[in-house]
Amino acid sequence: MKKLINSIILIPLISFIIVLGVFFVFFKIILQNIATEKLQQDKIELIKEKKQELKKEVDSLILSFSYLRKAVFENAYMFLESGFKTPSDSKIKFFDSINNDSAMLKSFIIKGKVFYLLETNNSSYLIKLLKEDNLVKAVGIDTREIEKTVKKSIFEFLDEYNKNKISYISVGKIDNWNPDKSGIIGELIYMPPKLRMLIGKKLSINISDVKGHKYRKEYFECLKAKRDDCFVSYMFLNPLTKRYERKISYFAIMKPYNWVFIKGMYETQILENFKKIENQVYANINMLFKKAIILLVLITVIIVIISYFISKFIMNEIIRSYEQMRKKFLRKFFFDEITQLPNRAKLIEDINKGTYQGLILIDIDDFSDLNDIYGFNFGDEILNQVKKTLKNYYEKVYKIGSDEFAIPLKREVKKEDLIKLSNIKPSYDGVVINFTIGASNYKKRLLETAEIALKFAYKQQSKKYMFFDENIEYQQIKKVDKIQFLHKVLENRAIEPYFHCIVNENKEIVKYEALMRIVWEGVVYEPKDFMDLLKESKMYLKFSKIMLEKIFNYLPEINKTVSINLSFEDLNNYEIKKMIYENLKNKNYDVCFEILESESIKDFEVVKRFINNVKKFNAKVAIDDFGSGYSNFINIVQLSPDYLKIDSSIVKNIENEKFREIVKIIIQFAKKFNIQITAEYVCREKIFRILKEMGVDEYQGFYFCKPQPINRLKNDKIS
Questions:
Q1: Do the Cβ atoms of 509 and 502 come closer than 8 Å?
Q2: What is the per-residue pLDDT for 90?
Q3: Is 189:172 a contact under the CB 8 Å cutoff?
Q4: 175 near 253, Cβ under 8 Å?
Q5: By 3-state DSSP, what share of the chain in percent is helix, strand and coil, each rounded to 5?
Q6: What is 401-425 written as a DSSP string?
């Protein structure tokens, strides 16, 4: 622009008439055209930016709804896995067999979990496979029920999202990609509450706007071509102005429903503030034009040189005024109105420049509640208080959401940064403000990964901040893989009892302890490899049930007493106790139940009732891991066990005088109440001799034998 202005004002001023004509052309036509062209470019950029925001908003919602759908399916599958003991059992359907020509079984994976779909002629079911008598059976949930839940959740979210908005989101469904002459491609399936009467309205590609533009045909062909930039411009009735105005809408489709999400904005909405600035720019040009004419009349008669400098000064003022207006206009789209901090769009622009190495996101806890209780003005003051506090510590602070702030750093974020921020407790008018913090140094996806860390921080109990670490994603994948492995083990019943010998003082085998093992593809897994995850994934009781079934099946083959381990979870489970009682009632098994005496026992009455019940069938009872840290002699007296098993932490230190004194006390106590003592973790001859001299009744440990499957048991004396 400056180059063009300079070329004009350097034209020789031959006469007043010629100069007057030149200035008229320059001010009134050329400069106005330049301003118009620049404003038009800014207008195009603004519309383009708004279109991208529109696209990102709709695409983000569709992506969120896709995740929601996956989560609902996953919950339904876990519902089947958990045994479906809820009022929703009426939705469960059992299939005696899925081996027929009218059914098709498909599998798919969500977050590493294997799902199965059974499709029949009329229905589709999410199923859990069962194997019985060499036949594949299944139990399943009609996917239509699941889809109803998904649809309800989506539409309830959209009701809240569309509340009091002019630019609302509507949803149509395309069920005909090859329409006939009627042009019907589907119907409207969702509209905001105020427009509910339009739901069910048929969508035809033959419909035109007031100017004859078949906009539905345009977006239908765009969606059919699977393009991801389906923007359509058409004339539509603005409910505020009651006039037909140009509307720009974005259309995106959500698979597998073939739902089309539509959201648009009127150009008048986008250009509302722009129009004011445009009018002001032209008003300034007209005002300066008048000033220029007056100055020209006074100065032209003097000298050409003076005229030249004055004209140049005027031109610079025009340019500066225009730039100020332009900056003011752009500021409205890159800065938050409440805090005057740069906003999310500005943060993304600055991140893309590649100058930042780390990013911290700070979310105000329960901010919406504060708005509801104290009002929006109070909430605005809290935002400004947070801004002031953060600016005391960091140079760059952005406000990127309603209650979310961002701090980008030219260095990597350190743990000290997060600790410092988590300890900051700003307050306003007596209300203390708390933060949840996420951070990332992953430069390629700085904002996205910081937001992931923020979500994980909300789930934590111990601290209110978290770094993004690729190990988080890796650990989640690894954990899911292990859980899937345990599901396969459960499905194939690859759980085996291994038997560990217990001997007397003459090293003669007097009983065996049954220990749980997973045997998979020739590899034997011990409880330390899977027990914690087994309990976390709610599969422990299913594993325990299979373990007990196999132990009771093996008992007739073993001519020794067999000790069976039971946790409080087992004793508190009706099905497992019922299985134990029925087996003991039907056959005279020689068994001993080992109960872990620990802080996990939350109700001693449950344990006491179980012990009394099994003793009616002549079963023995042992308290396992006695002396491990939570032992209570009063509890032992109340439980009246037959055996106390001294914990390994004491036995392996028996050469220490202090630990021997502990064992002496336990033995004295046990003898007084006619309880036998078993020592675990006997790994050396010396430990065996010490315990033998102290009067221990039975011994167990790798010194005598290792746990073995049933086909490798030795019932003779240990050599």
A1: yes
A2: 47
A3: yes
A4: no
A5: 50, 25, 30
A6: SSSEEEEEESS---HHHHHHHHH--
Amino acid residing at 499: F
How far apart CA 290 and CA 547 sit, in angstroms, is 98
Residue whose C-alpha is closest to residue 71's, from 161, 152, 158, 146: 146
**d(Cα 168, Cα 361) in Å, to the nearest integer?**
29
Strands (E), 49-190: 92-95, 104-110, 113-119, 124-132, 135-142, 169-174, 184-190
Radius of gyration of the chain, Cα coordinates, nearest whole angstrom: 39
Residue showing tokens 């489709």: 253
Q: What does the block give as tokens for 57?
A: 């908003």
Query: Is the residue at 66 inside a domain?
Result: no
Mean pLDDT, the chain, as a whole number?
Answer: 82
What average pLDDT does this structure show over 516-525?
93
Helix, strand or coil, per DSSP, at residue 443? helix
Residue 33's pLDDT band, with cuts at 50, 70 and 90, is confident
**Surface-to-core class of residue 34, CB atoms within 10 Å of its CB (0-12 exposed, 13-18 middle, 19+ buried):** middle
Work out how many domains the chain is built from and give that number.
4
Q: Which residues contact 191 (CB under 8 A, 6 or more apart)?
A: 170, 171, 198, 199
Give one DSSP letter per residue of 297-344, joined into a string.
Answer: HHHHTT-HHHHHHHHHHHHHHHHHHHHHHHHHHHHHHHB-TTT--B-H
Helices and strands (DSSP H and E) totals, the chain: 23, 27
One domain, residues 424 and 323: no
Q: Which helix (H) or strand (E) holds 210?
A: none
| Whether residue 426 sits in one domain with residue 363 | yes
Picking from 468, 483, 506, the residue at the C-terminal end of a domain is 468
**What is the enclosing helix (H) or strand (E) of 243?**
strand 243-254
Whose tokens are 């132990």? That residue is: 551
pTM score, whole prediction: 0.45
As a whole number of angstroms, the distance between CA 638 and CA 630 comes to: 15
Which of 526, 581, 495 minimizes the C-alpha distance to 706?
526
Q: Token pair of 93, please?
A: 């359907």
- Give me 513's structure tokens: 């302890």
DSSP 690-711: HHHHHT--EE-STTT---B-GG
Which residue range(s) make up the domain with 633?
496-712
What does each C-alpha distance from 620 to 351, 592, 608 come to in angstroms?
70, 4, 13
**668 shares a domain with 556:** yes
In a domain, 108, yes or no: no
Spatial distance between the Cα atoms of 669 and 634, rounded to a whole number of angstroms: 11
User: Which is nearest to 681 in space by CA: 672, 691, 671, 673?
Assistant: 691
End-to-end CA separation in angstroms for the chain: 103
Q: Closest Cα partner for 497 from 564, 427, 441?
A: 564
Letter string b/e over residues 251-279, b meaning 16 or more CB atoms within 10 A of that residue's CB = bbbbeebbbbbbbbbbbebbbeebeebbe
For residues 680 and 669, give the distance between their C-alpha atoms in angstroms, rounded to a whole number.
Answer: 18
Question: Both 583 and 655 in a single domain?
Answer: yes
Residue bearing the bigger pLDDT, 159 or 591: 591
Cα gap 277→285, rounded to integer Å: 12
pLDDT computed for residue 87 by the predictor: 42
